[in-house]
Amino acid sequence: MVGGTPKTIGSAMFFAGRPPGIEELRELVAGRFGGLPRLRSVLLPPPPPAPAPLRRHRWLVLDDFDPVLQVRAEPPGTRLADLVEAAARRSLPGNPPPWRLRLVPRHGPDGFALLLTAHHAALDGRSLETLFGVLLDGPPAAARTPAEPRRQQTLGRLGRDLLHHARPSRRLPGTPAGPTIAWTDVDPAAVRAARRSLPGIEVGFNDVLLATVTGVLREVHGAPSGWPGGPRPLYALVPVDLRPSGAAGELGNALSATRVPLPIGVDHPRDRLAACHAALAAPGFLSRAVNAARLVRGAALLGAWAPRMAAAHGNSASYAPVCCSSLVLRRGPWSLLGRPLTGGMVLPDMPPPGVVSFFLAGHTRTPERAVSLSLTVISHAAPPAARLTAAFTVALDEFAAGQAATMR
């Protein structure tokens, strides 16, 4: 475990039709995943005789993996929700390779599901998307563009970013409770309405997610004037993929993260959306993520204890009590051995006590880009995840209502 949480992530894909046989699925996985070194890698414990705080784990690439250990069929009657709940609470061992693919023989009225889970040290969310693109039949990946060189940063910029990471966040009201997990479908039309609610501005998925989450927190916790922490900002942690443009399909964990202040004191949904868009588009947003990664790499030179302390700080409620992520599978249609993809969900890693995690995922199903959207919430804070998913639907609908009122 890292920081007291298992650090298991996952993604489920839903398909129409009868499930494939487990041997057929294992043969497919061995053929398509067998050439990927990351999926043949095991995590070795730190070697002696150095003191434990100075020792680091290391990766060892094996010649192959055993499909029988990595790919399993669940018994009839298994509920996907139970598997997701168990996966989020359990850390995968480093050996065999820390990923698993589970076939859930029945999901929905006429279909089945695949659940891919992995330790976050081995893979990130973008890697899960890449792996499903390898496993499924669909359109070819876009040609890779040349990697863009990173701009050198000034010492002044670096100093400001480090000071930013040192500032504490306001906390969410209430006493942290045991973790709960919920996910729900999200209406693509409501997301489109939100993205169109600021004329002349290209609004992204993360903009909508952050603004809607702000509305959710105001709904479940009441007026911000009564929240703890006084005038300090309430920060949301936003993961940032640091892969250069020429390495979009690279497997591993290439994520950093940075914080943005949520506009909890702003009343109108569109004004909150504008504030979130401005925060994500600000010049310092990306540099803070880059410098956070540099800080962790630099700390590693002091021994394993230093990046562990940095990770514990970055994963605490005092640093950011909210985490917001989004991911969209590239344009379909997609299928598994002739069975069409109908939707899916993403499981973020378990947040520490006092933190709530929101993950908005999209799965494009047709050449016309019909999108199936889902929201997963893991709440390790006072409001249960089911209440937050319900409040998300209400907060998202406020954009469509506001747009309709403007057009009258």
Short description:
By secondary structure, the chain is of the alpha+beta class.
Plain-language structure description:
The structure is a single chain. This protein is of the alpha+beta class and 408 residues long. 34% of the residues lie in helices and 23% in strands. It contains eleven helices and 14 strands. The strands form three sheets. It has a six-stranded mixed sheet with strand order 4-5-6-1-12-11. A six-stranded mixed sheet has the order 7-14-13-10-8-9, with helices on both faces. Strands 2-3 form a two-stranded antiparallel sheet. Strand 13 and strand 14 form a beta hairpin. The C terminus is likely disordered.
Mean of all residue-level pLDDT scores:
86
Radius of gyration: 21 Å
> How many beta-strand elements?
14
**Order of strands side by side in the largest beta sheet?**
4-5-6-1-12-11
Low-confidence stretches: 404-408
Summarize the main sheet.
Answer: 6 strands, mixed
Characterize the overall form: globular
Strand content: 15-25%
Fraction of residues in helix: 25-40%
Given helix and strand content, the structural type is alpha+beta
**Helical run tally:** 11
- End-to-end Cα distance: 54 Å
Q: Give the SSE string.
A: EHEEHEHEEHHEHHEEHHHEEEEEH
